[in-house]
Design brief:
Blueprint (H helix, E strand, L loop, with lengths): L6 E2 L18 E3 L3 H27 L5 H23 L2 E4 L3 E6 L5 E6 L3 E7 L2 H6 L2 E7 L6 E6 L1 H20 L2
Antiparallel strand pairs: 1-2, 2-3, 3-4, 4-5, 6-7, 7-8
Helix pairs in contact: 1-2
Organism: Isoptericola halotolerans
Keywords: Membrane, Transmembrane, Transmembrane helix
Protein name: YdbS-like PH domain-containing protein
């Protein structure tokens, strides 16, 4: 059993329960490799400007060290926050719907009834493929209700795509 096969704790955020933790739900967690993917993107997004600010500070004016320090503080905060954000992502398959939850401070629980799904999409960019993860996106009639499960191993993403598609077709056929 790998770490992403373990169920998500009932609530990884300070033991709070309520509308985000329906009783009797065994949450599945995403792969911890999603943390690495997000940190690489953050490192490139903030690391390159930090290096540019440092170069300008050395070559032109030392006041630019303030900008480099500010960006470095944001990067440090993000490095501490991202692993916790990834641990807060979970999904659960029920008989009639799929639950997806995420967030630490601003929590979100998305319930997608199988009968409302139009199609299920699996995506993996170059970094995702290198790290062995994929993203499953569920599309519904309303664009604002599309749900995403990032950081799944490709085998699990494929299994989930096929299972959700079959369940969605079965629910639509029953209407």
């Amino acid at each position: 059993m790998t770490s992403f096969d373990l169920p998500v704790d009932p609530d990884p955020v300070e033991g709070i329960t309520g509308p985000f933790d329906p009783p009797g739900i065994a949450w599945d967690r995403v792969s911890p490799r999603l943390t690495t993917a997000r940190l690489v993107v953050l490192g490139l997004t903030l690391g390159l400007p930090i290096l540019a600010c440092a170069a300008v500070a050395v070559l032109v004016t030392p006041w630019v060290w303030l900008a480099a320090g500010f960006l470095a503080a944001i990067l440090l905060w993000a490095v501490l926050l991202v692993p916790r954000q990834v641990r807060a992502i979970g999904y659960a398959e029920r008989d009639d719907d799929l639950l997806i939850r995420k967030g630490i401070l601003f929590r979100q629980l998305v319930v997608v009834p199988y009968g409302r799904m139009q199609f299920v999409d699996v995506q993996a960019g170059p970094l995702d493929r290198k790290l062995g993860i994929a993203k499953v996106q569920l599309h519904t009639a309303a664009a604002s209700t599309d749900a995403v499960i990032p950081g799944l191993p490709p085998v699990e993403a494929e299994r989930l795509r096929d299972r959700l598609t079959a369940r969605g077709e079965a629910k639509l056929a029953g209407l």
